[in-house]
Amino acid sequence: MVTYVFPGQGSQHKGMGGTLFDDFKDLTAQADDLLGYSIKRLCIENPYAYLSQTQFTQPALFVINAFSYLKKLQQTDKKPDFVAGHSVGEYNALFAAGAFDFETGLKLVVKRGELMSLVTGGGMAAVIGLNEMQVIQVLAENNLNAIDVANYNAPTQIVISGYREDIEKARPIFEAINAVRAFRILDVSGAFHSRYMREVKQEFERFLQAFNLYPLSLPVISNVYARPYEQGRLKRTLAEQITSSVKWTESIRFLMQEGEMVFEEIGPGTILTGLIQKIKREAVKI
Q1: Residues 87 and 7 in one domain
Q2: What is the pLDDT of residue 283?
Q3: Buried-most residue among 61, 210, 221, 273 (CB within 10 A)?
Q4: Catalytic residue of the set 11, 68, 87, 222
Q5: What is the helix (H) or strand (E) element at residue 193, kind and residue range?
Q6: Block means of pLDDT (10 residues each) for the chain, length 286 residues?
Q7: Can you tell me the distance from the alpha carbon of 157 to that of 90, in angstroms, rounded to the nearest whole number?
Q8: Helix %, strand %, coil % for the chain, to 5?
Q9: Catalytic: which of 68, 193, 194, 245?
Q10: For this structure, is 13 an active site residue?
Q11: Is the pTM of this model over 0.90?
Q12: Do 199 and 175 share a structural domain?
């Protein structure tokens, strides 16, 4: 069996997309009209370092992931057995499964990116070397209760999220622990995938009501539940994803238990491929 996985923020880079814009000229023009700027120029040239800004990063990744998937379909004429995406990459998984067309998916991602970019004062950091229970224990023992776990990326790669000053306060505490190999502050403006995104979640949920989402043709593994999306909960789960942890480790473990599974990363970079390799090494099947 084969699972296609679609990357999220952190995978973007100058030059991504390459010849894909020429391969999908009509969709590129459609994206330009919707966005009000050249998606090709944004991805190839990265003017003013816009690719590091959430409101530009998310649409750019959706477009490149979508084009990469369509190119893969042209080359293989075969769909995967499962799809999954990391954070905003989940919109590409839903696109691949037929929940919405390219234009609708891009509209949703544009709104999501705009809303998330308005959140300031937050921060995120990756803790490398501790498992989820150890991270939670450190937070509790040091009265860092205002920090949430945002991403369970791999068994010993956990991302935390909260107010910037709390993340800075946590830094020396984690760095003093021998088992911590690294504490990396992420280049984000907000405390994504945490309780502090509730207002964004509520506004995005209202925005979603204007769209029709279609029956899924493939199982899509949800970041929120690490299980396949339920058709009747598509919009609710998409909204929940904004405040919920990305359960990537559990999602991959769920897919591993489905049988002999090959994972293929569809989109720029190999970040998810690396995480999956770590999960396979460190995690047992559920």
Answers
A1: yes
A2: 59
A3: 61
A4: 87
A5: none
A6: 96 95 98 98 95 94 98 95 98 98 98 95 95 97 97 97 96 97 90 96 97 97 97 96 97 95 97 96 62
A7: 20
A8: 50, 15, 35
A9: 193
A10: no
A11: yes
A12: no
Residues 135 and 170 grouped into a single domain: yes
Instruction: Collapse the DSSP code of 41 into the 3-class scheme (helix H, G, I; strand E, B; otherwise coil) and give the result.
Output: helix
Q: What is the CATH number of the domain that holds 17?
A: 3.40.366.10
Concatenating the DSSP letter of every residue in 225-254 gives TSSBPPGGGHHHHHHHTTTS-B-HHHHHHH
**Separation of alpha carbons 194 and 42, rounded Å:** 29
∠ CA 128-130-133, rounded to 5°: 140
Contacts of the segment 276-282: beta carbons below 8 A, 24+ positions apart: 276/5, 276/252, 278/154, 278/155, 278/156, 278/157, 279/154, 279/155, 279/248, 279/249, 279/252, 279/253, 280/252, 280/256, 282/154, 282/155, 282/156
Spatial contact of 59 and 39, defined as CB atoms under 8 Å apart: yes
Verify whether residue 86 is a known catalytic residue: no
pLDDT of residue 286: 43
Answer yes or no: do 64 and 203 share one domain.
Answer: yes
Q: How many domains does the chain contain in total?
A: 2
Same domain, 67 and 180: no
Residues 14, 105, single domain; the answer is yes
